[in-house]
Design a protein that fits this description.
heterodimer, A: alpha/beta, Beta Polymerase, domain 2, two-stranded parallel ribbon, 3 helices, 21% helix, B: alpha/beta, 4-stranded parallel β-sheet, two-stranded antiparallel ribbon
Chain lengths: 155, 189
């Protein structure tokens, strides 16, 4: 599908999607976090979409508003690409997002990484432990407000 | 005595480190300085252990490859094990997680052992000096370093120059006074 076809198809299927500007490299869509799993199931299972390949899952700290998670999806059958954005409610207490690790198994480790370095809680993840840092590490070092007086030289 | 002076003038060069004593039967006894011989052997056959953790390793490989070819100076026998190596070339970033492994490798190397810190990361943390939670600010926090090579990454010529400087350092060593470089290192001496 082309970009416009993808956009109109997804708009007809799920409400509340916001599409990004046309100047970006890939079509981007921001989804409310309640609808994330609905969207992901649709993207993976629909025969016309067939987004079977997640090639990136990253987290963004939109200090001081909220955290975001960005999923890059591609269809190895049709070779179209979609970028899905989802945001948490805030940065303090409601920082959870539904897991997609049961839909895209590669997200299992990516979500552990995002939890380790950014502290986003993925609801329903089967094994949400730290990945790179030691188990007794305090805090999440890629957050904008992370403080570590022992190791960091702040400039 | 007259014979000895004659030999020195005609056969030996001025910088010959030893002494020639006539044996009286037509032959001569040559007394050399053992330091010079040991250091000559050590400095011309340095077996490096490759410790490449990032992009500096590419320049290190290039230094060993055909164009720069550091085997011309005696560094060709690159070792994958510390137990057979004389010099460890730290080519890349040392993180807090990697530091114990580096120390373990260094401790496994047999004496005499030397360390070359290659590139900005191995000298001081380099581009990761500020605002990093995971990078060691210089390999000399973990093991004693002999030669520092600045650059990000250094060109192969720089690394060659560093290795030749290391050879010069070895040649100027007095082996009777030499200490294990790691003695007192952890106490900050």
């Amino acid at each position: 599908m082309t970009r416009t076809e993808l956009q109109s198809f997804l708009t007809s299927k799920i409400e509340g999607l916001e599409f990004g500007e046309e100047t970006t490299q890939y079509l981007t869509v921001t989804v409310p976090k309640e609808k994330l799993r609905d969207l992901m199931f649709l993207l993976k299972d629909d025969e016309e979409l067939a987004f079977d390949y997640m090639f990136s899952l990253t987290a963004v700290d939109w200090f001081p508003k909220y955290f975001g998670v960005v999923y890059h999806l591609e269809s190895t059958k049709f070779r179209h690409i979609l970028v899905v954005h989802v945001n948490t409610e805030n940065r303090e207490d409601d920082i959870s997002i539904d897991t997609v690790s049961d839909i895209y198994p590669t997200a299992h480790f990516h979500e552990r990484e995002a939890y380790d370095l950014m502290g986003i809680i993925f609801e329903g993840h089967s094994d949400l432990r730290r990945l790179f840092l030691t188990d007794d590490w305090v805090g999440h070092p890629l957050r904008k407000d992370y403080v570590d007086e022992a190791n960091m030289i702040v400039k | 005595m007259g014979v000895e002076k004659e030999i020195k003038k005609e056969v030996l060069k001025d910088d010959f480190p030893g002494q020639v004593i006539p044996a009286g039967n037509g032959g001569n006894i040559v007394v050399g300085v053992l330091d010079k011989i040991i250091n000559w052997g050590r400095s011309n056959s340095l077996w490096p252990l490759y410790f490449g953790t990032s992009c500096c390793a590419i320049e290190m490989m290039q230094t060993g490859a055909a164009r720069h070819d550091w085997s011309r100076f005696g560094f060709e026998v690159a070792r994958p094990t510390p137990r057979q190596a004389d010099v460890i070339v730290i080519a890349g970033t040392i993180t807090n997680k990697m530091a114990p492994a580096l120390r373990k490798l260094y401790d496994q190397m047999a004496e005499p052992k030397y360390v070359v810190a290659m590139g900005a990361c191995a000298i001081s943390g380099g581009p990761f000096y500020y605002n990093s939670y995971s990078v060691v600010r210089g390999a000399d926090h973990v093991i004693p370093v002999d030669v520092y090579v600045p650059g990000c990454p250094p060109r192969p010529e720089s690394l060659l120059d560093a290795m030749i400087k290391l050879q010069k350092k070895i040649r100027s060593t007095k082996n009777s006074e030499r200490k294990n470089p790691v003695d007192g290192f952890d106490e900050g001496k």
